């Protein structure tokens, strides 16, 4: 490959920019691009290209790029029929990079894909980089280089700040910048990558990780071109102290299909992506509008002191504070348990009957006292269980003055204060006061709660980053030789046992007499299972006979096995437990080995109560996965039931994760289902196992 | 009681209004009240009361209310120390009603409550009505009577329209009106009821049901003074074709506590309130900001044709449509399954690969064609599975013109079109275009999805209203005589059996020999249960011995019963089933008899997967409750498992609901747990039952 002409930093911050098809008419793409460059004060050399005009917007125009002298970046928003020729001319003229706004390429079908490949080849041969096609370009707020036709640039001012963004949707990026600007957020660089023919999302993610102007990174992802790059970049961002937030398309089946047809990218497994984000401390959001507000909060507010803390809700309206408190549980948040010092402070201002959260300052003895409000918020921000304060302000007198108290209180307390201006236009003076103070606000309680959930995820990621790397547990033997294809239950269990995962004892038998000898060796009651490599769900075919108390029952069960070709029967101990888990492992193409744990048995299908993480795991990771299950209260001992052997479940999950890590892509998938979990101290045992192995035996 | 001087309609629409403590200073409450009355064009007689001024705002001022002539309504925002005297003067002067903005009465503790009682007595003796105290008054947009000091009245214009509101929080009401006005919504009358010393929420709800200017009713409720009035008023609203929406405080434990201390009202059981709303077709919202937008949608958009239909999502941004589609499942919504006619229309505009939902019009062959967009939306609005269309518009050229297409398409299609302007300020021209067209818009996809969920609840309520009233099932016997207090299992089962609910056969025995005789009569295997009126959770004490195969096992189990005083032992058939349900009934004070159904066994505690409804039920109601359970897929036959006997579960639930309705307040609570459900056609049976009876035997 030819050496590339330009670094990414120079593409985002070019010294000279040519606009192909520049125009005085802002109704045209080329007209808007040059208009926005001028309007937002592009400080470099600006070169309009238009064969029919001598000057555009007062700048000398050139008939072609070849006549324009050295140009770092050319912006092309030309009809698709002219695109190849224009790119060729740029390549010939020594342009460093083309930003191709033109669409209808790989996004429109095979014909467009062929053209995109041609253009890419032209660029690659010349060492010229491409952004797009089918993108909306780049907003560089730090250096005032608006290389884009996006209508969001109609805004009078696009504030510079710490948020860097990369997006596979240009229109969505424009919208998110608009939402951010409304809230007073500032941006460093925002890059729309479109079809990613050449430069892709991970290239710009890497650039933002290294970019000194960027403090927080927000990503809109439809599909990763090379998922293997993503995890290491998240680690580098974390090392650089830059939180990464993302919205990933394809959370729903319909969204996944639509993302595939848009920008022609494979959405990939959402669950695997989510697991990777959790493992690497990236914050996965569902709503893009919440993501940009959360990025702003991470840019301009203090971070949460630690994950898992509670919230204080305070305002001068009972209705507003109560409805906000009522919305917390569904948002995965909780009110704090206040400490005694905090209660003592509150008692100074209000009757004992009102000393609780949420705090309605209307109940203050002296009305909605400013001094009382400030004193209470100070107490909240020093309370050991209060991670953040939420202020859902309704219409009230002196809104702007009241709002203006919070930036100082927040700075002083060093914890986030989320100010919500719940009223619309009548709250604008309060909004302006906070913009003036460079302090974030929210327009909806639901937005603030979404942001808080993101802050919580960031704090969890920070916590996890402090842990040592996973360590291999002792006593892992050599995995047995593995045939390719579906393993029998006995083979799968032998594999699990080699990793120290307890499995039920079992003896393979070829006749009913062998089965009876096996049962005597194991001890009644036993389980009888028909063995066939061809059968995945043994129970569904009547191949499993449970709880056989004696030889007569065993004979009867043997005789009742269905009439299909069996490779033998497995006689097993009849194990019992208090709860059923499913443990699984699989190789996720692009993401690597993953393990999962969930509620087992019929609940697997019913609750979809499953946690997935990249392998290998630390014991802390495995324990955290178990705690996130809906089933957790059962494991922990619900309503007087005994706590179960969570340590044994953690141990099995960690060992399975090393099995997955060791086998790598050869382990297509493996399930231990169910793993029976007994009361604390009594262990766990896998009573069934399945696995599918790919490729060659090692 | 003295006859009251004024109807509610006249209080809301007074001919003459006195402002006690009127002032030229809008920084004071009395100054703001008179300012807003004048500013918004109050058409009646306006009387400032101020002993120190001859005129206020150019109007002749009176030294006292006694000097002011006949006055319909006096507004009091005076210090609490002067309140009693002012109310006495109003009563003496023949004022029809006082709106008391002054707070710190019952809301502030026992002293305030005593003063509130005094004021109420003064008013009652005179036949004068009270609104408040601790309220923010009344906005009457229909008749331009703004009887309030709320800052929301700073708005240049408060649009008249069909939304009537009653709120127990004045500040929240002001905020909701502000949000509504931003979105172009119009209001009829908004009433802040405060502490409800005299006139209460249900009084004004009744007024709005009858008010010709009100088409939709929105309520913010902290606690109902008289819950028994609420259900019948919801029925009257439905009969009048007026949807009722509410937010009820106390969904969370903390919210319930806070609501109690605010406005001094008991929050009551949130679950019972929610069940009543569902039964009567009222729409219960969680987020007040969503409620007001949903009320507006029900005022200005067509209704959903029927419940349970899918959605179409369409916009010119792939990112926006995909992320919107991804947000549907968590919001309880789904994309539609398009019919062939709709697909055929889409094929006219775009390649086959893009013919799916969500629709990205950027994939149109001719770009984002206006004709194509209109044609596709028309096809959507005629599709049998598309109930509504969501348009999440991002920044794009000609936003206002594009937005202006939708009011006409919506009117023409007769189904809701929810237009979301996802960008902030840069989308204001589109917002203005829609305000101009008197058409709702949303600023957040999450708001639009919340509104759609409310529209869905309204459609469900409409559907249910078309059903005939519940009919008593045949074969209900006389309930046995019931002792007060906790029933034994045998007594509770006899009660259930009298209503035709199948229960396990059981024989009470007093010795092991009697128990063996009983087991022989019933047939092995049997269950042995120790009977004690003092024990609620028999299993926890080891009083239940399952699956005893023969007399020896029965003897051993009998001997192993714990050493506590027993009233005997119950020998029962060992019943088996495929799933466990819990059925329950209770008397809910204020709301009446309720029945519940949920996942039984350990899942009760774990999933809190429970549905509650007022008794008695129709079979359709019982079936709908089962379908709403998380457990439903198990009942319906998940992954190749057999479907269970849902008809038997419906039958048992309906019969239990009649039991609850017949016993009324005597039935404190009753549980059938578990009710074992067998495969379809094989019935159900309650294997355990508990009940607590209050008061006298009939």
From TrEMBL, chains A, B:
UniProt domain ATP-grasp: residue ranges: 493-529
Keywords, in A-Z order: ATP-binding, Ligase, Nucleotide-binding, Tricarboxylic acid cycle
InterPro entries named among the record's database cross-references: ATP-grasp (IPR011761), ATP_grasp_subdomain_1 (IPR013815), CoA-bd (IPR003781), NAD(P)-bd_dom_sf (IPR036291), Succ_CoA_lig_flav_dom (IPR032875), Succinyl-CoA_synth-like (IPR016102)
PROSITE patterns named among the record's database cross-references: ATP_GRASP
SUPFAM superfamilies: Glutathione synthetase ATP-binding domain-like, NAD(P)-binding Rossmann-fold domains, Succinyl-CoA synthetase domains
Family annotation (Pfam families): ATP-grasp_5, CoA_binding_2, Succ_CoA_lig
One of the record's GO molecular function terms: ligase activity
Protein name: Acetate--CoA ligase family protein
Gene source species: Siccirubricoccus soli
Organism ancestry: Bacteria, Pseudomonadati, Pseudomonadota, Alphaproteobacteria, Acetobacterales
């Amino acid at each position: 490959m030819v050496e590339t002409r330009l670094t990414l930093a120079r593409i985002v911050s070019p010294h000279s920019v040519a606009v192909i098809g520049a125009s005085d008419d802002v109704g045209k793409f080329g007209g808007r691009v040059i208009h926005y460059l001028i309007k937002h004060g592009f400080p470099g050399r600006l070169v309009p290209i238009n064969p029919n005009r001598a000057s555009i917007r007062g700048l000398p125009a050139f008939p072609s790029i070849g006549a324009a002298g050295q140009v770092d970046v050319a912006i092309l928003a030309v009809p698709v029929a002219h695109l190849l020729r224009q790119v060729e001319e740029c390549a010939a003229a020594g342009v460093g990079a083309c930003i191709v706004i033109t669409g209808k390429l790989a996004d429109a079908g095979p014909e467009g894909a062929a053209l995109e490949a041609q253009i890419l080849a032209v660029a690659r041969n010349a060492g010229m980089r491409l952004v797009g096609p089918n993108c909306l370009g780049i907003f560089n707020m730090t250096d005032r280089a608006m290389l884009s036709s996006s209508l969001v640039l109609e805004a009078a001012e696009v504030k510079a700040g710490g948020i860097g963004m990369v997006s596979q949707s240009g229109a969505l990026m424009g919208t998110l910048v608009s939402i951010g600007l409304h809230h007073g957020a500032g941006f460093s660089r925002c890059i729309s990558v479109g079809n990613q023919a050449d430069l892709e999302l991970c290239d710009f993610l890497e650039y933002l990780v290294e970019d000194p102007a960027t403090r927080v990174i927000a990503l809109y992802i439809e599909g990763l071109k090379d998922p293997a790059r993503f995890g290491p970049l998240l680690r580098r961002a974390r090392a650089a102290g830059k939180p990464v937030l993302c919205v990933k398309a394809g959370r729903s089946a319909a969204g996944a299909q639509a993302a595939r047809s848009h920008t022609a990218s494979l959405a990939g497994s959402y669950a695997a992506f989510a697991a990777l984000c959790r493992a690497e401390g990236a914050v996965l959001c569902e709503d893009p509008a919440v993501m940009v507000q959360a990025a702003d909060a991470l840019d301009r507010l203090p971070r949460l002191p630690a994950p898992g803390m509670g919230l204080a809700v305070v305002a001068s309206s009972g209705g507003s504070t109560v409805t906000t408190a009522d919305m917390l549980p569904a948002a995965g948040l909780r009110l704090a348990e206040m400490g005694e010092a905090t209660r003592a402070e509150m008692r100074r201002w209000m009757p004992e009957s009102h000393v609780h959260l949420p705090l309605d300052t209307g109940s203050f003895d002296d009305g909605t006292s400013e001094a009382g409000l400030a004193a209470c918020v100070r107490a909240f921000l020093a309370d050991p269980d209060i991670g953040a304060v939420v202020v859902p302000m309704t219409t009230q007198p002196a809104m702007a003055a009241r709002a203006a108290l919070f930036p100082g209180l927040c700075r002083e307390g060093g914890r986030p204060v989320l100010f919500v201006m719940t009223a619309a236009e009548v709250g604008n003076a309060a909004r302006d006061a906070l913009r003036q103070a460079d302090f974030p606000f929210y327009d909806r309680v639901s937005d603030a709660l979404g942001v808080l959930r993101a802050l919580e995820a960031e704090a969890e990621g920070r916590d996890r980053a402090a842990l040592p790397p996973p360590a291999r547990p002792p006593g892992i033997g050599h995995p047995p030789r593995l045939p390719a294809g579906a393993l029998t239950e006995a083979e799968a269990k032998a594999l699990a046992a080699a990793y120290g995962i307890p499995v039920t004892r079992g003896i393979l038998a070829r006749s009913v007499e062998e089965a009876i000898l096996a049962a005597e060796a194991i001890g009644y009651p036993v389980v009888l299972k028909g063995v066939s490599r061809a059968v995945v769900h043994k129970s569904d075919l009547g191949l499993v006979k449970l709880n056989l108390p004696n030889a007569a029952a065993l004979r009867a069960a043997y005789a009742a096995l269905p009439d299909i070709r069996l490779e033998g029967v497995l006689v097993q101990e009849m194990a019992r437990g208090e709860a059923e888990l499913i443990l699984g492992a699989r190789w996720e193409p692009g993401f690597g080995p993953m393990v999962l744990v969930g509620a087992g048995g019929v609940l697997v299908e019913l609750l979809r109560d499953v946690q997935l993480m990249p392998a290998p795991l630390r014991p802390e990771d495995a324990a955290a996965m178990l705690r996130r299950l809906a089933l957790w209260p059962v494991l922990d001992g619900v309503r007087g039931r005994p706590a179960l052997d969570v340590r044994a479940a953690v141990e099995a999950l960690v060992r399975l994760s090393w099995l997955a890590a060791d086998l790598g892509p050869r382990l297509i998938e493996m399930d231990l289902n169910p793993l029976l979990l007994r009361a604390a101290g009594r262990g766990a045992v896998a009573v069934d196992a399945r696995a599918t192995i790919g490729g060659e035996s090692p």
